[in-house]
Specification:
Chain A: Pfam families: DAO (PF01266). The structure holds two protein chains of two kinds. Helix content of chain A is 31%, strand content 26%. Chain A is of the alpha/beta class. The radius of gyration of chain A is 21 Å and the shape is globular. By secondary structure, chain B is of the alpha/beta class. Chain B has three domains: 207 residues, FAD/NAD(P)-binding domain; 145 residues, 3-Layer(bba) Sandwich (FAD/NAD(P)-binding domain), CATH 3.50.50.60; 53 residues, BFD-like [2Fe-2S]-binding domain (Arc Repressor Mutant, subunit A, Orthogonal Bundle). In chain B, the strands form six sheets. In chain B, strands 1, 2, 3, 4, 5, 6 and 19 form a seven-stranded mixed β-sheet that branches. In chain B, strands 8-15-9-10-11 form a five-stranded parallel β-sheet. Helix content of chain B is 34%, strand content 23%. Classes of the chains: A alpha/beta, B alpha/beta. At the A-B interface, helix 6, strand 13, helix 9 and strand 17 of A face strand 4, helix 12, strand 22 and helix 14 of B. Strand 17 of chain A pairs antiparallel with strand 22 of chain B. Bound molecules: flavin-adenine dinucleotide (FAD) (2 copies). The site of one flavin-adenine dinucleotide has 44 residues of chain A, from helix 1, strand 2, strand 13, strand 16 and strand 17. The site of one flavin-adenine dinucleotide has 37 residues of chain B, from helix 1, strand 4, helix 3, helix 4 and helix 9.
Chain lengths: 390, 479
């Protein structure tokens, strides 16, 4: 029986554990902290196709969306608060609407359902009346990330997997031929494995170095605003169209373009900023004020609503803004599954599919096809430079 | 935006003492921001203007505002500073964030004076800042604690101090710690029948702390004063007892009190029921650390495991330019807060190179702090939360009132999903995600998961702020 050690019990590690145990793999998940307590607990639970242009990431998002629906049926949608809520992207200017329409056109060609909305107020009655137009993406969904991670892990444990909390993966156990045959914990304990999966999220860069297969994963800070609970006033996930431009950008400076959505408990989430400031945990008042201002522009009623809470997280990103998924030729036995940036929740279920295919032999680096763009060998020679930049 | 040399956050005993010291021994300018209606903090709480012309004037509440002489002296100093244009005291200003800017700090504030619809934001910058935000009282859930009429002892006391009104005619007081007594005494003096004070711990614990008590005769005198009042009003004080349930339909009508065994567990069969129309329960205090945690200053656990701000012998935190005094450095009463505030003032004038407080003042302050801190630690050790506090919780007992999370749901997160701390319980059940942001239920969540309060919670926003006020500030900064 194949034995896999998964480093990281975030949404990605938990999803991998669930998928691998489905195929009879003997799984041990290790995390130095509780399940889902890393970046998974610091974001929103958007499962989006709307924000991605054609390419490998969109393809993964589409695979992942289907995989999430299956996971929902398996675990119970209610238990993980999986909801097919749909998203509405609103343009704030006429020019913005034109580029939004062009973007949507490209997505449609890639199989995304993107519906032009002539009367945004019919979909979202409390929008600012001067919004010129919008595109409706009925495929966008949401999930509660920590619940989902906990339930995925529990499902894996039910099938015989082991979870080792409080365990720091310190180093690789390496054979004479350079292949990795397990990990060594900070305590000295050795866990043997046929494959080691690097699902350490924002710390995936550090773990990859410990495994002798460095990939560049850097932190990108984001803040999210949470309001007091209200009666339901926002029906979909509502994004301002500039979101589309921000996601793919590598500008180091602050980017905000807000995403407004109501939660089941009535609070409204306003996300999210993007900044490359390392692991700086301090509060940026400018970010909070800017997000508030953008939200109030889209939904004027929010001006009278209280902000209750702000939270922050560090998205794991690779320099080319694509996750790194697949076997690492420099350290046979190591499979990466990290660097999902602001889409790790959405992409987790699909990532788990790919990882389980790589483990069980259904997929190899040479047969990766459209997923080849996500393989770690794209970083050959790039590592040092990227690390210096960080 | 306004700029000052020194910014003091909190106008309680600690903040006022710091202000007075700075005014007396330097030429520094000072701004004091406080969320309350007037200076004084928890200890010298002012009646709300909303209480109207019939509210009692502070003088009539003298028995509730101890040590009026100190308060009067501090206020006089503050008034003088105001008259000289060196001090600005801004009440109803809630600081929602305190962040480093350049070589100083900026406090972002919401103005509560205009009412909810007229809230505006403002910013104050300073080179040095004192965090003197005090503490809030601790609640633990029990069946019926969410009925109207059930409050924290702090809530009962605040009602008395702010409006001079008692919360009920027949009141039961429970929990642990010396603050139960003044609250009971205050209620009794205002004509309420206090059916009993149920102190969970037993006085024998005090014997072990004889040294600290002996060094603080004044404190004993204070306690004796309350005891006298309680005896006069025939208020029974029962130790080793706990209120295990409140009963009623629309509001509280009765409580059940049980005896605790040596291990601190309610004894089956010891229960008795009492008719009441109000209940006050207090399990000590949690320091208000939101601003300090977000700034990232070092903390340390107190003798009961609660995180408090770590300071040196002149109240400096680990961050240059940031000072802390009063309950944020550990709960210990008003006299300790005054002594710490004085030391912080001395440190600030010295560190900014704009004066010097007399040696003797500093020496005396330090002696007081040592002595009073020892006393405070003794109190904490003698008044632990009993081990069996959760024994009588029922599956449907609400733990988080804002989000309506039941004890059963919290237990499931712990027992079935392995939640090992309050944060994980929050992530899995929403406990602490509501209006109070875990200020009410966070302590219970910590005790239920790991038997300890756990690390201080990070709250990047320390008070609710209307998005409109933030949006206006963003618009303003573009100009
Ligand atoms: C503000 C913000 C908003 C976001 N919004 C969304 C959204 O709406 N939709 C979406 O899809 N994504 C969103 N994201 C991104 C998403 O949260 C992340 O991509 C995702 O959580 C990454 O999951 P993960 O499992 O890879 O990492 P994590 O959840 O961080 O898990 C990694 C785990 O590895 C553990 N670990 C690290 N090193 C070690 C070691 N040496 N030994 C043992 N364990 C180790 C950590 O403790 C951690 O638990 C957002 C992120 C932020 C910050
Ligand atoms: C019920 C009760 C009974 C007590 N009885 C006694 C007693 O008998 N003897 C005794 O010695 N002590 C007693 N105390 C304790 C005493 O009140 C405190 O020790 C003392 O007030 C602590 O002073 P401080 O300056 O640290 O904080 P506080 O007096 O609490 O002052 C803190 C101030 O900071 C303000 N503040 C907090 N956060 C912010 C913010 N973000 N922005 C702006 N302002 C903010 C608050 O509004 C408050 O005015 C009692 C307390 C309570 C609650």
């Amino acid at each position: 029986m194949t034995r896999a050690v998964i480093v990281g019990a975030g949404i990605v590690g938990a999803a991998c554990a669930e998928a691998l145990t489905r195929h009879g793999v003997d799984v041990v998940v290790v995390d130095r902290n509780p399940v889902g307590s890393g970046t998974t607990s610091r974001g929103e639970g958007n499962i989006l196709v709307s924000d991605k242009g054609p390419g490998a990431e969109l393809a993964l998002a589409q695979l992942s969306r289907r995989a999430w629906l299956e996971v929902g049926d398996l675990l119970g949608r209610e238990r993980i608060e999986l909801e097919e809520k749909g998203g509405v992207v609103v343009a704030r200017t006429g020019a913005g609407l034109d580029s939004l329409h062009a973007f949507a056109e490209g997505q449609r060609a890639a199989g995304v359902t993107a519906l032009d909305v002539a009367d945004p107020l019919a979909l979202e009655p409390h929008l600012a009346p001067d919004i010129p137009g919008a595109v409706h993406y009925p495929e966008d969904m949401q999930v509660q990330p920590v619940l989902a991670a906990a339930e995925l892990l529990a499902a894996a444990v039910d099938r015989g997997a082991t979870f080792r909390g409080g365990l720091d993966a310190h180093a690789a156990v390496t054979d004479s031929d350079g292949s990795v045959s397990g990990i060594r914990a900070a305590s000295g304990e050795v866990l043997e494995a046929d494959v080691v999966i690097n699902a350490a999220g924002t710390w995936g860069g550090e773990v990859s170095e410990r495994l002798g297969a460095p990939v560049p994963v850097l932190p990108r800070r984001g803040f999210i605003l949470v309001t007091e609970p209200l009666p339901p006033l926002v029906r979909h996930k509502v994004y301002s169209a500039d979101y589309v431009d921000n996601v793919g950008s590598s500008d180091a400076g602050l980017e905000t373009s807000c995403v407004v959505e109501g939660t089941r408990r009535g609070t409204i989430l306003i996300g999210a900023s993007r900044e490359r400031v390392g692991f700086d945990t301090s509060l940026s008042v400018t970010v909070v004020e800017t997000l508030a201002r953008q939200a109030v522009t889209i939904f004027p009623f929010l001006a009278r609503v209280n902000l209750l809470r702000v939270y922050r997280g560090f998205r794991p990103y690779c320099p080319d803004h694509l996750p790194v998924i697949g076997p690492d030729p420099r350290a046979p036995g190591v499979i990466h599954a990290c660097g999902h940036e602001g889409a790790g929740i959405g992409l987790a279920a699909g990532t788990a599919r790919l990882v389980s295919d790589y483990v069980t032999g259904g997929l190899t680096a040479t047969t990766a096809g459209e997923w080849a763009a996500l393989l770690p060998d794209r970083f050959a020679g790039l590592n040092k430079e990227a690390r210096q930049q960080a | 935006m306004s700029t000052t040399d020194v910014l003091l956050i909190g106008a309680g005993p600690a903040g006022l003492a710091c202000a007075a010291t700075i005014l007396a021994h330097s030429d520094l300018s000072v701004v004091v921001l406080d969320a309350g209606h007037g200076p004084g903090g928890q200890y010298w709480r002012q009646p709300a203007p909303a209480a109207g012309p019939n509210a009692l004037v502070p003088g009539e509440l003298a028995d509730l505002h101890h040590d009026q002489t100190t308060f009067a002296e501090l206020l006089q100093e503050v008034q003088r500073g105001r008259a000289e244009g060196r001090l600005e005291l801004r009440s109803e200003q809630h600081v929602w964030s305190l962040v480093p800017v350049g070589d100083g700090y900026a406090a972002h504030t919401v103005d509560r004076a205009g009412g909810p619809s007229r809230t505006a934001g403002s910013t104050t910058r300073a080179r040095a800042v004192l965090v003197a935000t005090g503490a809030y009282d601790r609640a633990l859930p029990f069946p019926g604690w969410d009925l109207p009429g059930v409050m924290t002892v702090g809530g009962l006391q605040a009602l008395l101090k702010a409006g001079g009104v008692a919360a009920g005619r027949r009141v039961a007081i429970g929990g642990t710690g010396p603050f139960l007594l003044p609250v009971a005494a205050g209620l009794a003096r205002r004509g309420s029948t206090v059916v009993g004070v149920y102190e969970a711990n037993r006085p024998t614990l005090w014997l072990r702390e004889a040294r600290a008590v002996a060094r603080n005769p004044a404190k004993l005198g204070e306690g004796a004063g309350y005891a006298g009042t309680l005896i006069r009003h025939r208020v029974p004080v029962r130790t080793g007892r706990m209120i295990v349930a409140a009963h009623g339909t629309d509001r509280v009508e009765a409580v059940t009190v049980a005896r605790l065994d040596r291990a601190g567990r309610p004894v089956v069969g010891s229960e008795h029921r009492l008719a009441v129309d109000a209940v006050g329960v207090g399990w000590g205090f949690t320091p208000q650390l939101d601003l300090a945690v977000t700034l990232g200053v070092d903390r340390r656990p107190d003798v009961a495991g609660t995180e408090v701000v770590a300071v040196d012998d002149l109240q400096r935190t680990s961050r240059p330019g940031v000072y802390a005094a009063g309950e944020v450095c550990g709960v210990g009463g008003a006299a300790l807060a005054v002594a710490e505030g004085t030391l912080a003032g001395a440190a600030i004038v010295a560190d900014l190179g704009r004066g010097a407080a007399p040696e003797s003042l500093v020496r005396q302050g330090r002696r007081s702090v040592d002595r009073l801190r020892g006393f405070a630690d003794a109190i904490l050790r003698a008044h632990p939360v009993p081990a069996g506090w959760a024994d009588r919780l029922e599956p449907q007992t609400v733990v988080c009132r804002c989000e309506e999370v039941s004890y059963a749901a919290v237990r499931a997160a712990i027992d079935e999903r392995g939640a090992g701390d309050a944060r994980q319980v929050k992530q899995l059940t929403r406990t602490g995600m509501g209006w109070c942001q875990g200020r009410v239920c966070g302590y219970a969540a910590g005790l239920l998961t790991c038997g300890a309060p756990g690390p201080a919670v990070e709250r990047l926003v320390s008070a609710p702020v209307p998005l409109g006020a933030l949006a206006d500030a963003a618009a303003g900064s573009d100009d």
